[in-house]
Write a structure and sequence with these properties.
Layout (H helix, E strand, L loop, with lengths): L11 H12 L1 H11 L2 H4 L6 H19 L6 H4 L1 H11 L4 H22 L5 H6 L1 H41 L7 H11 L6 E8 L7 H6 L4 E5 L2 E7 L5 H4 L5 E8 L4 H13 L8 E3 H16 L10 H5 L2 H17 L2 H8 L3 H15 L6 H10 L7
Amino acid sequence: MTPNTSALQHDPEWLELIELLRERKPLLVEDFKARFDGNVIYSGKVPRDELDALVASTMEMYLILLSGQPLDPELQQLPAELGRRRARQGVPAEQLLEGVRTNSRVIWNALRQIASSEAAACLVRNTDAVLSLVEWHVREVQRSYLREQEALQRSSERRRQRAIARIFDSQRPDRDELVTLSSELGIPREGLFDVVVQLGPHDAHCTLCGRFGRGVYVHEMPGGTCHFRVAGDDDLLAELKGVRAAVLRQIRGTSRIQDANQAGLSIVRTRTGLAPEPVTIGDGWPAVAWKALSDALPADLLPVDLAALRAIHAETRNRLVETVTTYLATGSIKETADLLFCHRNTIVKRLAAFEDLVGIDLSIPRQAALAVLALAAPLSE
């Protein structure tokens, strides 16, 4: 709301000062430009002719209000329009407000110069009116700027979410559309990406978003949440320690993010019941393969029967599984013994016990491969 300065009309001495100030209006404009070079400060974001026109209009607005007169509709909207326009032009708020405050410095400095010693009392008694006018100007510009900035952010976020959702659409975007979507998101269409997939809906206070770093894009879908970013060179597995998630790194191109997400979902779904840790596709594929095999075949026709292993005491079972998985990962009895701090003979006995229970020979690659798959899934009691 425009401040009511009509009381100033009843101060003849003040009106004389303002009339002298109006005669100096071209000098006021030049003084402002000398103090605040908008073309430099705004880094070329605002055209020079727009800056010149604004300074002249702003000085006119102040002169009218300081003389106690009402503003015409166009000048009434000047502060709000300034805030909106600078927000759309991407001018930082502190730079904008510095420009607004410079108006008051120019005007006050000019008033002091033209006021005689006898008019000093006139300046003093109208100081509050000038300060109130300056505060109104700053407040209106700032309020309009923040409202427009929030609206732009909401609009930008909506465009961002639509672009992300389109990347994951079942009717896949073609190459030309991917160029547009990538541009909207500010990512390279043929760049490399890190993809992290979790089960469940996206949490408003997502821990993974904080650990994943800046520039993360999130897509929530039925049953899970996909996070992706332009690939980094950090130790992502270490960053995500304690988080149950599938991690796929160095995915080439936005067109492959959806495929990586599907692979990640397949992997992370096999991690239920296991310790919450991140897993790569290199470590997660055996469990996915075993699940596919289990879904395709009746339990009694699976090539590996783990019933006898499940039936033994949990502590014994866990020790055998730890030994076998370590051996399958290293291929060396000696290295397995070193890693588990056991004697070589202890490892040999545990492998033999496992082979007797499960009915496979770990020295035969084909049968060892079945053990890799079967032991990748959680073993229930």
